[in-house]
Amino acid sequence: MMTEMTLSRRQPSVWWGAMIICGTVVGAGMFTLPVVMAGAWFGWAMIMLLVSWGGMLLSGLLFMRVSLSYPPGAGYDTLTKDLLGRGWATLNGLSILFVLGILTYAYISASGPVYQHSLNQAGVPISTAEAKVLLTIGVAAVVWLGTTGVSRLMTFCVLAKILFLILLFGGLLTQVNVPSLLQAPGAGERYWPYALGVLPFCLASFGYHGNITGLVSYYAGNKKHITQALVLGTLLSLALYVFWLTSTMGNLPRSAFPEIVQQGGDIAALMAALRAQLHVNALSLMMSIFSHFAVIASFLGVTAGLFDFIADRLGLGHSPTARFKTACLTFLPPLMASICWPSGFVAAIGFAGLFATLWAVIVPAMLAWRSQQRCSIAVVLLFAFGLLNILAWMLSWFKLLPEFVAE
């Protein structure tokens, strides 16, 4: 009996690891997907999503194999420094810092209009900037208090997010306009030229690599269980994204998205467009509640990681005063940037996709290469996937890819 209990403790359920991955992956970034995929529309969007899922799963599995050759608890920085040297470790650390910082800016920018709308409806007159400040102070206070507060609020938000997501999907799928979803290009029109620019956003929507070393410790180096958790967690995320795109693109015509982009392409703009199409008031309410929990969960997850990264890098300590300084460094720059440049949500997610290519694709490929002492087919495919994402972002940035605008 004792032996069985001990084995049970040593080998946690694969399901919990999958939930960690899925909870990390599916967040407020999902709101950008239908907006940036509107030009390519549903068919090509599905292809780009599958390609990105396969590439990010492959990079995670390669990184896992490298992690298993180190003692449990060895972090990303330790692996990079040991196999690639201090220069690459520094560059990798800066890219992680940039991605977390720009995602914090993106979530503050996206959350302001959402919470302003809710507070105004509740009879509280407040500006977008004031809503951003209040929300940022609230999240900063939770993060400053420590891991316990973050984990408890995060667990509640993730469970609520999943509940309302299921209820929302159930309602939205009953209203899907299949002919609109499968709409063929008109005369002289092509969807595929818009597809390449979608890749960096898809990559940013499958970021979970910071959790892998934790899973190695959680499953005591059990390769089979870790692999199953990664595959199941990313498959669940892929399924949620497919349902989300089916629900949004099936309820909004393709012609409606240029107007959403002109309004900033953020969560508030997408929610406003969807509310106008919904025929059931309860769905509109569930969508608002879901968007609130999605924002808070993503906001907490990203800022807690950024807070810990800054504290570790600068060695600021864990006293209340030191944590206050870390909180200021974590939240003030993104908050000020969001107030000065309020419409950068979609662009920020694109930048996150670019820099995430380095630490979630290129660096894992290099680590696997150095660890195996050979360039395998998997490493070559991963390098190709990373370079394709960088090319897609650069072509979009220099306006060399078509932009989907109102006709």
Explain what you see:
- 46% of the residues are buried.
- It is built from 18 helices and no strands.
- It has 407 residues and is mostly helical.
- It has a single domain, classed as Amino acid/polyamine transporter I (Up-down Bundle), CATH 1.20.1740.
- The chain is globular and about 55 Å long.
- The N and C termini lie far apart (70 Å).
- Helix 4 (41-68) crosses helix 18 and helix 7 (128-145) packs across helix 15 (281-314).
Core attributes:
407 residues, mainly alpha, Amino acid/polyamine transporter I
Taken as a percent bin, the fraction of beta residues is: under 5%
Helix content: over 70%
Q: Uncertain spans, ≥5 residues at pLDDT below 50?
A: 1-8
Structural class: mainly alpha
- Count helical runs: 18
Largest sheet: none
Mean pLDDT: 82
Order of helices and strands: HHHHHHHHHHHHHHHHHH
CATH fold category name: Amino acid/polyamine transporter I
CATH evolutionary superfamily: Amino acid/polyamine transporter I
* Rg from alpha-carbon coordinates: 21 Å
Count the E strands. 0
Gross geometry: globular
Q: What is the terminal separation in angstroms?
A: 70 Å
Return the CATH architecture: Up-down Bundle
Name the CATH class: Mainly Alpha
- Count the domains: 1
